[in-house]
Design a protein that fits this description.
Length: 386
Protein backbone atom coordinates (compact mmCIF):
# COMPACT_ATOMS: atom_id res chain seq x y z
CA UNK A 1 0.00 0.00 0.00
CA UNK A 2 1.25 3.47 -0.85
CA UNK A 3 2.30 5.35 2.25
CA UNK A 4 1.54 9.00 2.86
CA UNK A 5 3.87 9.25 5.83
CA UNK A 6 7.58 9.63 5.38
CA UNK A 7 10.65 11.41 6.64
CA UNK A 8 10.70 15.17 6.11
CA UNK A 9 10.87 15.99 2.40
CA UNK A 10 10.68 18.95 0.09
CA UNK A 11 7.18 20.43 -0.08
CA UNK A 12 6.20 21.31 -3.64
CA UNK A 13 4.25 24.56 -3.99
CA UNK A 14 1.46 24.04 -6.53
CA UNK A 15 -0.52 26.55 -8.55
CA UNK A 16 -3.83 25.27 -9.91
CA UNK A 17 -5.30 26.70 -13.11
CA UNK A 18 -8.97 25.79 -13.27
CA UNK A 19 -11.12 25.74 -10.13
CA UNK A 20 -14.07 23.72 -11.42
CA UNK A 21 -15.42 20.28 -10.57
CA UNK A 22 -12.26 18.19 -10.95
CA UNK A 23 -10.21 20.61 -8.86
CA UNK A 24 -12.84 20.77 -6.13
CA UNK A 25 -13.76 17.08 -6.04
CA UNK A 26 -10.38 15.45 -6.70
CA UNK A 27 -7.26 17.58 -6.89
CA UNK A 28 -7.59 19.82 -3.85
CA UNK A 29 -8.67 16.96 -1.51
CA UNK A 30 -5.77 14.83 -2.84
CA UNK A 31 -3.20 17.60 -2.38
CA UNK A 32 -4.57 18.27 1.11
CA UNK A 33 -4.21 14.56 1.89
CA UNK A 34 -0.58 14.73 0.72
CA UNK A 35 0.19 17.88 2.69
CA UNK A 36 3.64 16.55 3.63
CA UNK A 37 4.57 16.74 -0.06
CA UNK A 38 2.41 19.49 -1.60
CA UNK A 39 0.97 22.86 -0.68
CA UNK A 40 -1.43 24.81 -2.89
CA UNK A 41 -0.18 28.40 -3.00
CA UNK A 42 -1.97 29.86 -6.03
CA UNK A 43 -5.36 29.43 -7.68
CA UNK A 44 -6.49 30.72 -11.07
CA UNK A 45 -9.89 30.79 -12.73
CA UNK A 46 -11.91 33.29 -14.75
CA UNK A 47 -14.80 32.80 -12.27
CA UNK A 48 -14.22 34.62 -8.97
CA UNK A 49 -16.69 32.41 -7.11
CA UNK A 50 -14.83 29.26 -8.13
CA UNK A 51 -11.51 30.75 -7.02
CA UNK A 52 -12.84 31.64 -3.59
CA UNK A 53 -14.55 28.27 -3.16
CA UNK A 54 -11.29 26.47 -3.82
CA UNK A 55 -9.27 28.83 -1.63
CA UNK A 56 -11.60 28.01 1.28
CA UNK A 57 -10.92 24.29 0.81
CA UNK A 58 -7.14 24.36 0.73
CA UNK A 59 -5.35 23.18 3.87
CA UNK A 60 -3.15 26.16 4.69
CA UNK A 61 -0.37 24.29 6.47
CA UNK A 62 1.79 25.46 9.33
CA UNK A 63 2.26 28.92 7.81
CA UNK A 64 -1.48 29.53 7.78
CA UNK A 65 -1.32 31.33 4.42
CA UNK A 66 -4.39 31.38 2.24
CA UNK A 67 -3.65 30.70 -1.45
CA UNK A 68 -3.32 33.71 -3.70
CA UNK A 69 -6.19 33.91 -6.19
CA UNK A 70 -6.07 35.41 -9.65
CA UNK A 71 -7.79 35.42 -13.04
CA UNK A 72 -4.39 35.53 -14.77
CA UNK A 73 -2.66 32.28 -15.74
CA UNK A 74 0.42 34.35 -16.63
CA UNK A 75 0.60 35.70 -13.08
CA UNK A 76 0.31 32.24 -11.54
CA UNK A 77 2.97 30.68 -13.78
CA UNK A 78 5.42 33.53 -13.18
CA UNK A 79 5.00 33.58 -9.40
CA UNK A 80 8.06 32.62 -7.30
CA UNK A 81 5.53 31.05 -4.90
CA UNK A 82 4.79 28.30 -7.45
CA UNK A 83 7.11 25.34 -8.11
CA UNK A 84 4.73 23.31 -10.28
CA UNK A 85 1.52 24.02 -12.18
CA UNK A 86 -1.58 21.82 -12.30
CA UNK A 87 -3.80 22.60 -15.30
CA UNK A 88 -7.41 21.48 -14.82
CA UNK A 89 -9.41 23.99 -16.83
CA UNK A 90 -11.17 23.69 -20.19
CA UNK A 91 -9.42 21.54 -22.80
CA UNK A 92 -9.05 24.53 -25.14
CA UNK A 93 -6.55 26.13 -22.75
CA UNK A 94 -4.47 23.10 -21.78
CA UNK A 95 -1.67 23.70 -24.26
CA UNK A 96 -1.67 27.51 -23.99
CA UNK A 97 -1.31 27.40 -20.23
CA UNK A 98 1.15 24.52 -20.41
CA UNK A 99 3.33 26.71 -22.61
CA UNK A 100 3.16 29.50 -20.02
CA UNK A 101 4.32 27.11 -17.29
CA UNK A 102 7.18 25.71 -19.39
CA UNK A 103 8.31 29.23 -20.35
CA UNK A 104 8.77 29.86 -16.61
CA UNK A 105 10.59 26.51 -16.25
CA UNK A 106 7.78 25.06 -14.13
CA UNK A 107 6.91 21.38 -14.18
CA UNK A 108 3.30 21.00 -15.26
CA UNK A 109 0.62 18.36 -14.73
CA UNK A 110 -1.97 18.74 -17.48
CA UNK A 111 -5.29 17.00 -17.05
CA UNK A 112 -6.18 14.82 -20.01
CA UNK A 113 -6.45 15.43 -22.86
CA UNK A 114 -3.16 17.27 -23.14
CA UNK A 115 -4.25 18.39 -26.63
CA UNK A 116 -6.83 17.55 -29.28
CA UNK A 117 -4.79 18.22 -32.41
CA UNK A 118 -1.26 17.42 -33.58
CA UNK A 119 -0.43 21.10 -34.08
CA UNK A 120 -0.91 21.81 -30.40
CA UNK A 121 0.68 18.69 -28.92
CA UNK A 122 3.74 19.30 -31.08
CA UNK A 123 3.98 22.87 -29.77
CA UNK A 124 3.92 21.48 -26.23
CA UNK A 125 6.57 18.84 -27.01
CA UNK A 126 8.85 21.45 -28.56
CA UNK A 127 8.40 23.84 -25.63
CA UNK A 128 9.34 21.07 -23.22
CA UNK A 129 12.53 20.45 -25.21
CA UNK A 130 13.37 24.16 -25.03
CA UNK A 131 12.65 24.57 -21.29
CA UNK A 132 15.94 25.81 -19.85
CA UNK A 133 15.82 23.97 -16.54
CA UNK A 134 14.43 20.63 -17.68
CA UNK A 135 10.78 21.24 -16.80
CA UNK A 136 8.59 18.26 -17.62
CA UNK A 137 5.05 17.76 -18.91
CA UNK A 138 3.08 15.14 -16.98
CA UNK A 139 -0.30 14.19 -18.51
CA UNK A 140 -3.03 13.22 -16.05
CA UNK A 141 -4.17 9.81 -17.27
CA UNK A 142 -4.42 8.54 -13.72
CA UNK A 143 -5.73 5.01 -14.43
CA UNK A 144 -2.25 4.06 -15.64
CA UNK A 145 -0.91 4.66 -12.12
CA UNK A 146 -3.39 2.31 -10.41
CA UNK A 147 -1.51 -0.53 -8.71
CA UNK A 148 -3.86 -3.12 -10.21
CA UNK A 149 -3.26 -1.75 -13.71
CA UNK A 150 0.53 -1.80 -13.31
CA UNK A 151 0.27 -5.40 -12.10
CA UNK A 152 -1.86 -6.23 -15.14
CA UNK A 153 0.86 -4.83 -17.41
CA UNK A 154 3.30 -7.30 -15.82
CA UNK A 155 0.86 -10.20 -16.16
CA UNK A 156 0.11 -9.52 -19.83
CA UNK A 157 3.81 -9.02 -20.50
CA UNK A 158 4.28 -12.64 -19.47
CA UNK A 159 1.83 -13.98 -22.07
CA UNK A 160 3.28 -16.07 -24.88
CA UNK A 161 0.53 -14.77 -27.13
CA UNK A 162 -2.47 -12.46 -26.70
CA UNK A 163 -5.59 -13.99 -28.26
CA UNK A 164 -8.06 -11.14 -27.76
CA UNK A 165 -8.77 -8.10 -25.59
CA UNK A 166 -11.79 -6.05 -24.67
CA UNK A 167 -11.78 -2.45 -23.45
CA UNK A 168 -14.96 -1.06 -21.94
CA UNK A 169 -15.74 2.38 -20.54
CA UNK A 170 -19.49 2.92 -20.24
CA UNK A 171 -20.44 5.27 -17.45
CA UNK A 172 -23.66 6.57 -15.96
CA UNK A 173 -24.37 10.13 -14.84
CA UNK A 174 -21.17 11.65 -13.46
CA UNK A 175 -23.25 13.92 -11.25
CA UNK A 176 -24.26 10.96 -9.08
CA UNK A 177 -20.69 10.22 -7.99
CA UNK A 178 -19.99 13.91 -7.56
CA UNK A 179 -23.05 14.53 -5.40
CA UNK A 180 -22.17 11.60 -3.15
CA UNK A 181 -18.44 12.29 -2.94
CA UNK A 182 -18.67 14.36 0.24
CA UNK A 183 -16.83 17.27 -1.38
CA UNK A 184 -19.88 19.45 -2.15
CA UNK A 185 -18.55 21.15 -5.28
CA UNK A 186 -19.82 24.60 -6.19
CA UNK A 187 -21.12 24.79 -9.74
CA UNK A 188 -20.56 27.93 -11.76
CA UNK A 189 -23.40 30.42 -11.37
CA UNK A 190 -24.94 32.67 -13.99
CA UNK A 191 -22.68 35.68 -14.38
CA UNK A 192 -19.57 33.95 -12.99
CA UNK A 193 -17.98 33.86 -16.45
CA UNK A 194 -18.04 36.94 -18.65
CA UNK A 195 -19.39 36.91 -22.20
CA UNK A 196 -15.89 37.74 -23.46
CA UNK A 197 -14.40 34.70 -21.70
CA UNK A 198 -17.20 32.45 -23.01
CA UNK A 199 -16.70 33.74 -26.55
CA UNK A 200 -12.92 33.24 -26.32
CA UNK A 201 -13.36 29.63 -25.21
CA UNK A 202 -15.85 28.91 -28.01
CA UNK A 203 -13.52 30.41 -30.61
CA UNK A 204 -10.57 28.37 -29.35
CA UNK A 205 -12.62 25.17 -29.35
CA UNK A 206 -13.77 25.73 -32.93
CA UNK A 207 -10.20 26.47 -34.04
CA UNK A 208 -8.94 23.23 -32.45
CA UNK A 209 -11.82 21.17 -33.89
CA UNK A 210 -11.25 22.59 -37.37
CA UNK A 211 -7.52 21.96 -37.16
CA UNK A 212 -7.94 18.37 -35.95
CA UNK A 213 -10.93 17.18 -37.96
CA UNK A 214 -10.59 19.08 -41.24
CA UNK A 215 -6.88 19.80 -41.54
CA UNK A 216 -5.26 16.79 -39.84
CA UNK A 217 -7.72 13.89 -39.78
CA UNK A 218 -9.45 14.62 -43.08
CA UNK A 219 -12.99 13.97 -41.82
CA UNK A 220 -16.11 16.11 -42.18
CA UNK A 221 -16.43 18.95 -39.66
CA UNK A 222 -19.95 18.69 -38.26
CA UNK A 223 -21.78 18.39 -34.97
CA UNK A 224 -21.34 14.59 -34.85
CA UNK A 225 -17.58 14.60 -35.47
CA UNK A 226 -17.02 17.50 -33.06
CA UNK A 227 -18.97 15.69 -30.34
CA UNK A 228 -17.02 12.49 -30.98
CA UNK A 229 -13.71 14.32 -30.71
CA UNK A 230 -14.80 15.78 -27.36
CA UNK A 231 -15.83 12.34 -26.04
CA UNK A 232 -12.57 10.72 -27.18
CA UNK A 233 -10.57 13.47 -25.49
CA UNK A 234 -12.54 13.30 -22.27
CA UNK A 235 -13.66 9.73 -21.57
CA UNK A 236 -11.68 7.97 -24.32
CA UNK A 237 -8.21 9.13 -23.30
CA UNK A 238 -8.35 7.10 -20.09
CA UNK A 239 -9.11 3.78 -21.77
CA UNK A 240 -7.13 4.26 -24.98
CA UNK A 241 -4.02 5.43 -23.16
CA UNK A 242 -4.20 2.41 -20.83
CA UNK A 243 -4.79 0.11 -23.81
CA UNK A 244 -1.63 1.42 -25.45
CA UNK A 245 0.49 0.73 -22.39
CA UNK A 246 -0.97 -2.74 -21.96
CA UNK A 247 -1.00 -3.89 -25.60
CA UNK A 248 0.89 -1.35 -27.69
CA UNK A 249 -0.46 0.58 -30.65
CA UNK A 250 -2.89 -1.16 -33.00
CA UNK A 251 -2.13 -1.48 -36.71
CA UNK A 252 -5.49 -0.13 -37.85
CA UNK A 253 -9.20 0.15 -37.19
CA UNK A 254 -11.20 -2.64 -38.79
CA UNK A 255 -14.50 -0.87 -38.15
CA UNK A 256 -16.17 1.81 -36.06
CA UNK A 257 -19.82 2.49 -35.24
CA UNK A 258 -19.67 5.98 -33.72
CA UNK A 259 -23.24 6.07 -32.49
CA UNK A 260 -23.47 9.12 -30.26
CA UNK A 261 -25.27 10.13 -28.17
CA UNK A 262 -25.28 6.74 -26.52
CA UNK A 263 -22.71 3.95 -26.75
CA UNK A 264 -20.25 3.45 -29.60
CA UNK A 265 -17.92 0.61 -30.60
CA UNK A 266 -14.56 0.30 -32.35
CA UNK A 267 -12.71 -2.81 -33.55
CA UNK A 268 -8.93 -2.46 -33.49
CA UNK A 269 -6.70 -4.73 -35.55
CA UNK A 270 -3.36 -5.77 -34.02
CA UNK A 271 -0.77 -8.00 -35.69
CA UNK A 272 -2.25 -11.31 -34.49
CA UNK A 273 -5.35 -10.42 -32.49
CA UNK A 274 -8.29 -8.02 -32.28
CA UNK A 275 -9.45 -5.60 -29.58
CA UNK A 276 -13.00 -4.33 -29.14
CA UNK A 277 -13.47 -0.92 -27.55
CA UNK A 278 -16.92 -0.04 -26.21
CA UNK A 279 -17.59 3.34 -24.68
CA UNK A 280 -20.16 6.02 -24.13
CA UNK A 281 -22.66 7.42 -21.69
CA UNK A 282 -25.62 5.65 -20.11
CA UNK A 283 -28.53 6.82 -18.01
CA UNK A 284 -28.07 3.81 -15.72
CA UNK A 285 -26.17 4.96 -12.60
CA UNK A 286 -23.21 2.59 -12.87
CA UNK A 287 -19.52 2.73 -13.75
CA UNK A 288 -18.63 -0.10 -16.13
CA UNK A 289 -14.95 0.40 -16.90
CA UNK A 290 -12.51 -2.46 -17.39
CA UNK A 291 -9.82 -3.92 -19.63
CA UNK A 292 -9.75 -7.68 -20.19
CA UNK A 293 -6.96 -9.53 -22.00
CA UNK A 294 -7.16 -13.20 -23.08
CA UNK A 295 -4.36 -15.69 -23.67
CA UNK A 296 -4.68 -19.45 -24.20
CA UNK A 297 -4.77 -20.31 -20.50
CA UNK A 298 -5.19 -17.02 -18.63
CA UNK A 299 -7.56 -14.05 -18.63
CA UNK A 300 -6.44 -10.84 -16.94
CA UNK A 301 -8.97 -8.12 -16.13
CA UNK A 302 -8.55 -4.69 -14.50
CA UNK A 303 -11.72 -3.31 -12.93
CA UNK A 304 -11.99 0.48 -12.45
CA UNK A 305 -14.56 2.33 -10.36
CA UNK A 306 -15.62 5.98 -10.30
CA UNK A 307 -12.73 8.25 -9.25
CA UNK A 308 -15.15 10.76 -7.76
CA UNK A 309 -15.68 8.65 -4.63
CA UNK A 310 -12.33 8.40 -2.90
CA UNK A 311 -11.13 5.00 -1.73
CA UNK A 312 -13.06 2.76 -4.11
CA UNK A 313 -10.54 0.09 -5.09
CA UNK A 314 -9.21 -0.74 -8.52
CA UNK A 315 -8.94 -4.54 -8.63
CA UNK A 316 -7.17 -7.14 -10.74
CA UNK A 317 -9.03 -10.38 -11.54
CA UNK A 318 -7.12 -13.36 -12.92
CA UNK A 319 -8.94 -16.40 -14.29
CA UNK A 320 -6.76 -19.28 -15.40
CA UNK A 321 -6.30 -22.94 -16.18
CA UNK A 322 -4.09 -24.56 -13.55
CA UNK A 323 -2.24 -27.84 -13.77
CA UNK A 324 -0.88 -29.35 -10.53
CA UNK A 325 1.17 -32.52 -10.27
CA UNK A 326 -1.09 -33.92 -7.57
CA UNK A 327 -4.32 -33.29 -9.50
CA UNK A 328 -5.39 -35.58 -12.30
CA UNK A 329 -7.15 -32.95 -14.44
CA UNK A 330 -6.50 -29.25 -15.04
CA UNK A 331 -8.79 -27.05 -12.97
CA UNK A 332 -10.16 -23.51 -13.00
CA UNK A 333 -8.85 -20.85 -10.64
CA UNK A 334 -10.10 -17.30 -10.16
CA UNK A 335 -8.35 -14.66 -8.05
CA UNK A 336 -9.37 -11.08 -7.35
CA UNK A 337 -6.49 -8.98 -6.05
CA UNK A 338 -6.78 -5.65 -4.24
CA UNK A 339 -3.36 -4.60 -3.02
CA UNK A 340 -4.36 -1.13 -1.91
CA UNK A 341 -7.23 1.25 -1.33
CA UNK A 342 -5.00 4.14 -2.38
CA UNK A 343 -6.81 5.63 -5.33
CA UNK A 344 -5.24 6.28 -8.76
CA UNK A 345 -5.34 10.06 -8.37
CA UNK A 346 -3.28 9.84 -5.18
CA UNK A 347 -0.84 7.41 -6.81
CA UNK A 348 -0.59 9.72 -9.82
CA UNK A 349 0.18 12.69 -7.58
CA UNK A 350 2.86 10.72 -5.73
CA UNK A 351 4.43 9.96 -9.12
CA UNK A 352 4.24 13.64 -10.07
CA UNK A 353 6.07 14.42 -6.84
CA UNK A 354 8.92 12.16 -7.97
CA UNK A 355 9.05 14.01 -11.29
CA UNK A 356 9.23 17.46 -9.66
CA UNK A 357 11.34 16.69 -6.59
CA UNK A 358 13.62 13.97 -7.89
CA UNK A 359 13.77 14.39 -11.67
CA UNK A 360 11.97 11.19 -12.63
CA UNK A 361 10.80 10.96 -16.25
CA UNK A 362 7.00 10.56 -16.44
CA UNK A 363 5.60 7.68 -18.46
CA UNK A 364 2.49 9.76 -19.24
CA UNK A 365 4.46 12.42 -21.08
CA UNK A 366 3.49 14.81 -23.86
CA UNK A 367 5.30 12.57 -26.36
CA UNK A 368 3.37 9.55 -25.09
CA UNK A 369 0.11 11.51 -25.23
CA UNK A 370 0.62 12.21 -28.93
CA UNK A 371 -0.22 8.54 -29.57
CA UNK A 372 -3.73 9.15 -28.24
CA UNK A 373 -4.25 11.59 -31.09
CA UNK A 374 -3.10 8.93 -33.54
CA UNK A 375 -5.87 6.70 -32.20
CA UNK A 376 -8.46 9.50 -32.34
CA UNK A 377 -7.48 10.02 -35.98
CA UNK A 378 -7.92 6.43 -37.14
CA UNK A 379 -11.15 6.00 -35.13
CA UNK A 380 -12.71 9.13 -36.63
CA UNK A 381 -11.50 8.25 -40.13
CA UNK A 382 -13.11 4.80 -39.85
CA UNK A 383 -16.38 6.21 -38.49
CA UNK A 384 -16.72 9.32 -40.67
CA UNK A 385 -15.30 8.49 -44.06
CA UNK A 386 -15.18 11.65 -46.14
Amino acid sequence: MASTTSSPSRVIRVGIIGCGEIAQVVHIPTLNFLADKFRVTYLCDVAAGARETCADRVVQGTEGKRPVTTASAEELCASPEVDAVLIANADAYHVEHGLLALAQNKHVLIEKPAALCFRDIDRLIEAEKQASGGARVFVGTMRRYATAFEDAVKEVGGFDHVHYARVRDIIGPNALGVSQSGTFPRAFQAGDVSAADSDDRAARELDIQTQALSNEFGVPLNDASKRMLRVLGALGTHSLSAMRELLGMPKSVAGAALTLPGIFAVLFRYETFAVTYESGLSGVPTFDANIEVYSANKIVRVNFDTPYVKGLPVTLTIRERVEDEGVAEPYYQERTIRKTYTDPYTLEMLEFYEVVANGKTPKTSAVDSRNDLELFKIILQAGYKA
